């Protein structure tokens, strides 16, 4: 098991402020890192001295659990496994150009859920496949 830093959760550290707005680029980066990880379990445990960037990453890992893309394991948490839906999502947004297209559409409409972002990515991929196959030309 590889540790993703040391992340913290006592009252003192909970009073520190971190940006709680979802960062879709960070979510993509975390999923790519977890997928590239050499173990099925990705470990991220907070400690008292965890820096804000690790606390922010941990928060986003928990958002991915909420979205069904990761599953948190273990009695005390902090151990994460990517679900099939998480693998499907990262496969859909792996391409930098597709990811940028998705972000462009989302910016145009003012925001979207991760599920909608996955749908947009699938639509972009389908369009690319059709273009390569000469379908709809």
Rg calc: 17 Å
Kindly estimate the percentage of residues that lie in beta strands according to DSSP.
Answer: 5-15%
Which geometry do the CA atoms define?
globular
Q: Indicate the structural class.
A: alpha+beta
Most strands sheet:
4 strands, mixed
**Uncertain segments:** 6-15
Distance between the termini: 49 Å
**Number of domain units:** 2
Strand order in space, largest sheet: 1-2-4-3
Task: Give structural notes.
The protein has 2 domains: 1-83, no CATH class; 95-137. The chain is 55% helix and 12% strand. It has helices at 11-14, 24-36, 52-66, 84-93, 96-109, 114-133, and strands at 2-6, 42-45, 70-73, 79-82. The chain has a 4-stranded mixed sheet. Helix 2 crosses helix 4 (84-93), helix 4 packs across helix 6 and helix 5 (96-109) crosses helix 6 (114-133). The longest helix has 20 residues, at 114-133. The model is unreliable at 6-15 (pLDDT under 50).
């Amino acid at each position: 098991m590889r540790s993703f830093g040391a992340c913290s959760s006592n009252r003192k550290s909970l009073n520190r402020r971190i940006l709680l707005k979802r960062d879709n680029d960070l979510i993509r980066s975390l999923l790519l890192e977890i997928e590239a990880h050499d173990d099925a379990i990705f470990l991220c445990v907070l400690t008292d001295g965890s820096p804000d960037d690790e606390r922010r990453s941990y928060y986003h890992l928990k958002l991915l659990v909420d979205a069904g893309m990761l599953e948190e394991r273990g009695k005390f948490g902090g151990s994460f496994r990517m679900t099939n839906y998480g693998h499907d999502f990262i496969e859909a947004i792996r391409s930098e150009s597709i990811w940028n297209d998705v972000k462009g559409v989302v910016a145009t409409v003012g925001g979207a859920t991760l599920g909608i972002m996955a749908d947009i990515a699938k639509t972009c991929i389908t369009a690319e496949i059709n273009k390569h196959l000469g379908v709809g030309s």
